[in-house]
Amino acid sequence: MAGQAFKKFLPLFDRVLVERCAAETVTKGGIMIPEKSQGKVLQATVVAVGEGSKGKDGDLRPISVKVGEKVLLPEYGGTKVVLDDKVSLMIFAPLK
Known about the structure:
The chain has about 100 residues and is mainly beta.
């Protein structure tokens, strides 16, 4: 899944790099879904995580997600990043 560029890529602060999951092409009942009918996939896998951000008191607040976890994405949001010819998204992460 993660190529060489993903392993070297480290997001800063409270940012997370995610890779969208593949769209479902067949339903559980075996019906094939046409490409035009497939919606935008809002589920992704976390590929890289920043260290967190500092609060007003100066303490580091870690990010609440870890590499490999599945997350839900906002429909409109994130910054498109291209690594190893794969399109990924850089998003803000929830802090603990």
